User: Fold this.
Amino acid sequence: MAAKEDMSLNEFEGGNRSNGGGGGELEALPVIKDLESVYDIPVQISAVLGKTNMQVSNLMRLNKGAVVELDRKVGEAIDIYVNNRLVARGEVVVVEDRLGVTMTEIIKTDRS
Assistant:
């Protein structure tokens, strides 16, 4: 199983601040320039509230208004996946009249 570490969003920042003539503005980071070619690639993002296992026979008996119990408790963080890979945990929020997700923790996994 891959090791997981918490990683703050500040770790994505980097590079050097310009100390001369640029008025303290951030210089263009080489890493970010290298990533510009992938900015337009679409990805699938999923926010998983919880999971459960159920037999097909029980699934077929569900009616409108049925409640399916999930493996999470109220207030527990939800999992955020990008292309079926866990990348963060977060909380459900309401944005105007829609549901949204705010990331509270970035998950770093080793690919080895």
